[in-house]
């Protein structure tokens, strides 16, 4: 049997071991609690508000058009004799593009040349007769002055009548010559229209006819396509036409900077400016037409392309700005998490201009405030946070 002292010693050792185990468990629980408390404080990145310039821009859809474009028609009917260009050809201004054969006009020109020659000969003969009649009238007149008894009044009257008749014949011959001359000039003008020249330098975008085809004169009754020969376009410069909404028309002005992007040219931006606008609004759409001119030396912009134009219509030089990434938007209401006294504080804000990168703060924040930009999704109003400055 164990002695009483042995039993007492065993009981003491057991008690000490139990106390030691209890103390160890409490210590580990306290350490875990402290670790969890530390892990519950999220890390965030903050930025301070700053003052600077911000621009309000609008984006409008538009279409690229040639700087100049013309469809060339035949003024006179005839058969297409030659056409020296085809679609895609580059032509210089005043270069001959096509010629129409009009034998009827050539025959008329020869006829009017003959009529002009005959009328000039008649005018020359009538002029000579008028000159001789004038000399005879003067001779009779002087003879009557010297010897009135020898020269009968009938002779004087006859000389006067012959002179007036010769002058009338001369006037008629001159009139006939002018008519023949005008007729010849008209035919020569029409023959000039039989040669189609380029009104400006550009690229042939359409060719409507081939040699041998009959080309009618371009009149109001003729079909435009039947009378058309060539469509010529100059797009070394282009016009981008946009429709400005009624609420923005008063802010449109000449030389307003514009950035244009074309759907067919991803990644490229073209700089331009407002060149002209209509002032008046379209009655149906309540929009105002405006044009932007853009240099196009590499011909990348093509007529007919769809484009978007970004117009910088208003500027504020000293606005209170914050990054657009810092905004929290819910149900069309904007707010931010401000960093104050080590906590995230949700603050509703009223915004002004927005350029896509920065936004203007009109109400809700002070210039000295800092706002949470990274990590705002994991915080709540009043929650303690660990903040570092965003780069």
Protein described:
With 391 residues, this protein is α+β, with helices and mostly antiparallel strands. Helix 2 runs antiparallel to helix 3. The longest helix has 44 residues. The chain is elongated. The N terminus is likely disordered.
Determine Rg (CA atoms, Å): 49 Å
Strand-pairing-aware structural class: alpha+beta
The main pleated sheet reads as: 6 strands, antiparallel, barrel
* Oligomer status: single chain
Show unreliable segments.
1-38
Give the N-to-C terminal Cα separation: 79 Å
Percent of residues in β-strands: 35-45%
The counted number of beta strands is 21
Order of helices and strands: HEEEEEHHEEEHEEEEEEEEEEEEE
